[in-house]
Structures are given as C-alpha cells and as structure tokens.
Description:
Oligomer: single chain
Radius of gyration: 25 Å
Order of helices and strands: HHHHHHHHHHHHHH
Amino acid sequence: MMKKLKITFFDIFLLVLMVGVIVVTLYPFLNILAISLNDATDTARGGLHIFPRQFTWANYQEIFGGTADLWSAFVMSVLRTLVGTITGIIASTMLAFTLSRRDYILNAPISFILVITMFISGGLIPEYLLIRELGLMNNFLVYILPMLLNAFNVIVIRSFIDNIPMALTESAKIDGANDFTIFWRIIIPLSLPVIATVSLFLAVGQWNSWFDTYLYARGNANLSTLQFELMKILDNTNISSGSVTSQSAEFVARRTNPQSIQMAITIIATVPILVVYPFLQRYFVTGLTLGAVKS
C-alpha cells in the first residue's frame, strides 16, 4: 500500500523560495531576449517585460546584414575557442600532474612561480612588446599561446589530482605502466569533473575575448572574432550624454535603435555558451574515486 506524501509548511516555503530564485535568475535574460525581438519603436515606449509586444527580426537582420562579415568572425571565434580550450586543458593538466608528483624536485620552485604570477603582473605594455618580439602580431597563435597556461587553473587541477588515491598509480606502476600511461589511462578519466570545470572557464574566456584581437590582430581581417565585430557595432550604436549620435540616428531610421541592437548583441554572444554548458554540467560532480580503493 502506497504511503501518502506528507507535505509540510517548510516544503511549501522552500518551493516558493526556489520559484522566486528561478524567476529572479531568468527575468534579466528573458527581458533582454524580449527587447532584442521587439520592434525598436515600440521598445522606446518602455514597459517591456519577458514577451515582445511587436515581434520582429529587424534587430538581428541589422547586425548580420551590415558590412561586417560576422559569419567568418563567428567561425574564427569558434575555432579559437575549440583550439584554445583543448590545448589549454592538455597543458594545464600535464603541468598539474607533474606538480602533484611528490618526487619531482622542482615542485616547490615552479609552484612558487605560478602563485607569484597570480599576484604580480608585468602589465599591458611589456606584454605587448613580448608578443611583438615573438612575432605573434596578426598571427592565430596570439589567441592560443598567451592563454595556454593559467596559474589558477593549474592549481585547481592539481588540488583535484592530489585527492586521487596514490594506491591507484602505485598499482599501475607495479603492472608496468609508465607516467604517460598513468596520466592518460588513470588521471584523465578520474579528473573529468575538474577538467570539465576548467574547460568551461577556458571556453568562456576564449569566447568572450575581444581585447586581444584589438591589440594584436587588427591588421588581419581574417583573424577578426565575433566579439570584436560585435564590440565595434556596439560602439557605433552607443548614446553618450543622452544625445543621439548620427550613427544612432541612422539606426533609428532603419527602425532599430541602440538599445535593441545592444540586447541582440548580448543574446548572440551568450547563446553559444548556454548551448555548451548542459553538456558539461553532468561532470560537475565529485567523488568519482569514492570507494575505488579500500584501505
């Protein structure tokens, strides 16, 4: 006989609280989406919430129908995100695994150098001079090499690897596995949660980056990224000091306005990350090694 579900006052309170949290979390995004899909003239009236009053694709058509080649910029952003994330994960995980080895004699000095870089930076000018001297100006590698290693990511991965029971690697060594085999066959599979987390950090950083394109790759139109092109469009549609610029007036004449364009740009920049996140979310768990080894 099935037991009746007992609902307490606390359960109701918790349900109402969670619904409130969901509404507060989703409302800003839904409001931005509604403005981006609403007629610009109607948007100027205000009072728009989560549904567009006069649906239109004009704002997106204005962005993708302009002079900027956003499609090639989109491909470049995807390419730099994929390559940058994969190479960054491989480099960070290999370094973290090396530093997790207690018998590595350079463990302490390298760890100290990594930590120092989190507090002290050379600054923008030395970085620019270094990039120029390395011949990375207007080169695709300028998107990859400077972001290849991040001290925070290495420390996070190393902390996770330190929690993996030593008995696993020791038993693998007894069976004849070398360090490379241990890394690919044991460390990588057991570190999927932290790898997924750091991958998301790297992917978001690569996808949202536009300033490096402005500094180092402006001379090569083929290296222009989506974020950089959207930033240029956004800059051309800004309203300063409450006055409408000539560029803004042109957008109004086309039945679009700066606010609508800005909201559409926000959606374009955000949606790809939202699409990728659910595939990584299932790895955001801990304790994969729980019970793997019994002491």
